[in-house]
Amino acid sequence: MLDELPLAVVRTATPLALRIGIDVGGTKTHVAAIGDDGARLDHVLPSSSWRTGALFSDSGNLARLADLIRSLVRLDERTTLAAGMHGCDTPAQVALAARTLERLLAVPVRVVNDAELLGHAARVGECLQMIVGTGAVVVGRTATGATITADGYGWLLSDFGSAPALLRESVREALVRADRDELGDDSLVGALQNAYGVPDLTELALAVTERAGLTEWGGHAPLVFAHADRGSAVALHVITEAARRLAGNVASLLARGALGDCVVAAGGVITNQPRLQHELRLALAEVAPGVRLEVLDAPPVDGALVLAGAAPDERHHPAP
After folding, report:
1. Does residue 29 register a pLDDT over 50?
2. H or E stretch including 128?
3. Are 143 and 150 in contact (CB under 8 A)?
4. Rounded to whole angstroms, how far apart are CA atoms 285 and 273?
5. For the chain, what is the radius of gyration of the CA atoms?
6. What residues have CB less than 8 Å from 109, skipping those under 6 apart?
7. CB-based contacts of 93: which residues, under 8 Å, 6+ apart?
């Protein structure tokens, strides 16, 4: 499974990298390189080891990423690099990241949003690409080659289906049901109260608000699925609604001209939770008939390696 990749080095002899692929996610960065001898090197580490804040919030982030790459492999005039980067959400950001890395590394660089690696990793042609993990976003391309997205606005307000959003929406749904006197003895609510060390729902809402954070909220997402299996009405509702929001994002992109009849999905939540996969397939059948869901069973970084090996005329940089 994708999230079972160790945060450690898996080394093979790669004295020189001809192709380098990078998958920069919200929590992890995966660097893969193919050497001149055909051997592959993989290195997975926390994104926080080189990135401070959001990708563009610290001017030293890309320089530290370049230093990391140079610490792992040698590069020369034959080396090509492609990176899918969480936080590269606009053509201007994509172009800036590509130019900066090219200047720092002195090799050709292709940059895309990290979601755009999925179709290449799955070896699927025209498709929509969905990440549901630390964050949640759906990405597609139009007939003109324009990249369009739905959601991906962040864990605090949006990213429905993501790990932190599942916690956020569970507490919100519990509050709504309590106000209607419809909550009852819901096992998920009890588990969350225990996790936060509070005696009741009011105190839970305060504690969740005071300790708001991507990792803090996201760390409780497994409870939602565990208690859905135990019949929690709150958990079941939240998962179903998350699937509907994700499917709605797909439908929105199709209405805006995105191409493809397949959604390739990856990320720690969608990859590891069959219940969400099932609900998403049901929701897609309602709002996007004929569109199938394919859950990626390869590391997304494989898509970056595919892009790194693309012909020069396919390695264009989007205009800023």
Report:
1. yes
2. strand 128-132
3. no
4. 19
5. 20
6. 80, 81, 82, 83, 98, 101, 102
7. 55, 56, 87
The pair of three-digit structure tokens given for residue 285, joined into one six-digit string? 């059948």
DSSP letter at 135 equals S
Of all helices (H) and strands (E), which one includes residue 97? helix 91-105
d(CA 67, CA 255): 42
pLDDT tens, position by position, 134-184: 999 999 999 999 999 999 999 999 999 999 999 999 999 999 999 999 999
Separation of CA 166 from chain center: 15
Structure tokens at 214: 């991507």
Kindly tell me if the per-residue pLDDT of 19 is higher than 70. Answer: yes
SS3 of 252, please? helix
- Domains annotated on the chain, with CATH: 2-118+299-314 (3.30.420.40), 163-295 (3.30.420.40)
3-state helix, strand, coil in the chain (%, to 5): 45, 20, 35
3-state secondary structure of 148: strand
Beta bridge partners of 28: 46
Which residues sit opposite 82 in a β-bridge?
A: 21, 110
The pLDDT of residue 283: 99
